[in-house]
Amino acid sequence: MDLRSRLRHDTGFWIVALAFLSAMAFSTLPSPLYAIYQERDHFAAPVVTVVFAAYALGVMASLYLAGHVSDWLGRRRVTLVALVVSGLSAVLFVLWNDVAGLLVARFVNGIAIGALTATATAHLSELSAATGRRGPRAALVATVANLGGLGLGPLVGGLFAERAAEPLVTPYVVFAAVFAALAVLLLLVPETVERREERPAYRPQRVSLPGDARAAFWAAGMAAFGAFAVLGMFTSLTPTFLTGTMHESSHLLAGAIPFGVYASAATAQALTMRLATRTQVLLAVSLVVAGLIAVAAAALTASLAVFALAGVVAGAGVGVLFRSAIASAAAVAAPGRAGETLAGVFLIAYAGLTVPVLAVGAALAALPQATVLVGFSGAVIVLVGVTGGRMAAQAPARAA
Prior knowledge:
InterPro entries: MFS (IPR011701), MFS_dom (IPR020846), MFS_trans_sf (IPR036259), MFS_Transporters (IPR050171). By secondary structure, the protein is mostly helical. The chain has helices at 3-28, 34-41, 45-66, 70-73, 75-95, 99-130, 137-163, 170-186, 214-244, 251-271, 277-301, 304-331, 338-364, 369-394.
């Protein structure tokens, strides 16, 4: 590869990374804005959980139907479509911002993210390889773009909520403009998938469950479910808990706490990358359990400081636990079926963003917030403890 081509692939790598980061940030942008919607439209906390679940359902549907199509349609094309769909959801937020509109906009945004996540991750790896670079750069940048973007979104949303004259309009207009600019830049990015003369017949993504390793697969899948349940709780309900339990109404604070959770997850993943898989699992379970105990303590004492610290500790555990779950599932995948097996883990993980959050929303309609937080923490501690223990027992003594 000549120098000009190498530079083009390297520039393309960073354009894709920026697009990935921006799209993931937009997906969590509304988190601190939900309190403003609630105040304006007078709907209860359970409605927030339904709106959040609409996003997760969109991601799951997209993962199942379109998560694999970039293998033959091309990485750049699918990323471009995902950015356009993200821009469409931004327009929906502006033009149709009652509860029904929020549900549709969040579902559409989920569709974009489901198509983008695997595509952008693969594109980054291929662009990096094309420049001759070896080592963990692509994986590290993909992690930062994914989890870092998810953490950046609430912080940016909180800033807009505090500073913008029209906080339910301005952030969406800004991100729509960002997506339009990135779409133009993506045209400069090299394609890394060779177009086939004859396209294969379309089929949804299959999910492979190896017959002799079902227990290991389900342990990894349910650990990922628990990890995403924690992320879902902090992302969707932090403003509700801050206002109702801790009597804090700052929108910036409501964005800063989820930012701390995701930033901690990304940092922990980077710092523990070279640890043995079993060590990672045990460390992750310990951190998640400690963080959730702190969440329960924060609920009972109405302590903002403890709640914020709980988010950082639990976030670190979630980041390591999810990566360990992916490594454990890949280790037991049938030959040539790793992609399908990992798709199954992702689908189970995103169910963790949906089912527990809806259950918490339903519980909030009948029970005090502190009781719900304690109950949620206890249930996830049991789930993560059991599944993490099984993963640790089966984990290979090597780095994930």
